[in-house]
Design a protein that fits this description.
The complex is a heterodimer. By secondary structure, chain A is of the alpha/beta class. Chain A contains 8 helices and 8 strands; from the N terminus they run βαβαβαβαββααβαβα. In chain A, helix 2 runs parallel beside helix 3. Chain A is globular and about 70 Å long. The relative contact order of chain B is 0.27. The chains are: A alpha/beta, B alpha+beta. At the A-B interface, strand 1, helix 1, helix 6 and helix 7 of A face helix 1, strand 5 and strand 7 of B.
């Protein structure tokens, strides 16, 4: 038998094509069902769940809301979010550090999207890995808590650059940790010029009106 | 950390292409990797070293082509490089730029097959 000669074959194939194709399908399904889909990304402990719990409670009187929440392990976040009376489903990723479109698709399997106005997707706490995966969301929100340091956007430019809106959380603690809002804003604008930034406290409710206004406007402009 | 997932996706792509090309194996996989792809080359190479075992890519290496970020500059009215990944300003006129036109790529562009 003659050993075949090595040859260079030109191919053009996006590595995450399968994810991107499924994300596009999801986006189309969301559009047809008229559901506004918002994803939340941040580092662990930035207050995503408290923020989302307050958001779901505030929206629930006027809108049909649901949340899908990703974590490496435990169902604790889903239990917390269920207190808002919204429909909640936990995705346990085991060792996987991000959600992908397939996991979201599977989580939505037994929900009728036509029953929803807003769907929130809380990603696994991680500022690196989720940036590569499109989930079909319409609005990607990145959270940064005042306890994390103002230069976080400069350390994780990719995730901030792929987001549509930045939320600075735990603003009630800003003074205690000597958080410099101007520096944080500057870092965010450096890696994502023009991105809107809002400050909230899920504990006191400060800034939640502004955040809800962003959500209403996102839904109006769909 | 997601580089293992990415490595597995690369192997999936390569195996599909091997079948399409009627090849028997692959010795190198050439990737275009954008500065905004969210993937680190070093961790991807080591993850790939583990993931390739017992696959059609068992003896394949990864070859990288870096893709810099290019964004549309509204002042220059041209696609331009940016100052740095920490500073999304036009490298020519220093205006802020937000429309990224290149730099998120993560593509297999060529394979050396046998």
């Amino acid at each position: 038998m003659i050993a075949s000669q090595p040859r260079l074959a030109i191919v053009r194939h996006n590595v995450l094509k399968n994810n991107d194709v499924l994300a596009r399908e999801l986006r189309e399904r969301f559009r047809q069902a008229d559901v506004s889909v918002v994803s939340l990304v941040s580092s662990p402990g930035s207050g995503k769940t408290a923020f989302l719990e307050r958001t779901l409670s505030a929206l629930r009187s006027q809108y049909r809301v649901a949340a899908v929440v990703g974590d490496l392990a435990t169902h604790n976040d889903a239990v917390r979010l269920a207190r808002s009376q919204a429909r909640v489903k936990q995705i346990t990723t085991d060792t996987v550090c991000h959600l992908d479109a397939k996991m979201v698709d599977a989580a939505l399997e037994d929900w009728d999207l036509n029953d929803l106005d807003f769907l929130f997707i809380e990603n696994v706490g991680n500022l690196v890995c989720p940036s590569s995966y499109d989930l079909g969301e319409g609005l990607r929100v990145v959270l940064l808590s005042v306890t994390e340091g103002e230069d976080k956007p400069l350390k994780y430019p990719t995730i901030f650059n792929t987001a549509d809106l930045a939320v600075i959380t735990k603003i009630d603690l800003a003074q205690a940790v000597e958080f410099d809002l101007a520096t944080a804003n500057h870092s965010i604008q450096a890696v994502r010029p023009g991105m809107p930034v809002i400050q909230v406290s899920a504990k006191t409710g400060e800034g939640m009106d502004r955040w809800l206004e962003e959500l209403y406007s996102f839904r109006r402009n769909r | 950390m997601h580089e293992l997932s990415i490595a597995l996706s690369i192997i999936e792509v390569a195996e599909e292409e091997i079948v399409k090309l009627g090849a028997t194996g692959v010795t190198s996989i050439h990737l275009r990797i954008g500065a905004l792809s969210g993937v680190g080359k070093r961790s991807l190479s080591s993850a790939f070293g583990l993931a390739r075992e017992n696959t059609a890519c068992a003896t394949a290496d990864l070859v990288f082509e870096d893709v810099p970020v290019i964004a549309y500059c509204p002042r220059c009215r041209e696609p331009r490089p940016i100052s740095s990944i920490q500073q999304f300003n036009c490298a020519v006129c220093d205006s802020p730029v937000s429309d990224v036109v290149q730099g998120r790529e993560l593509q297999v562009i060529a394979m050396e097959v046998t």
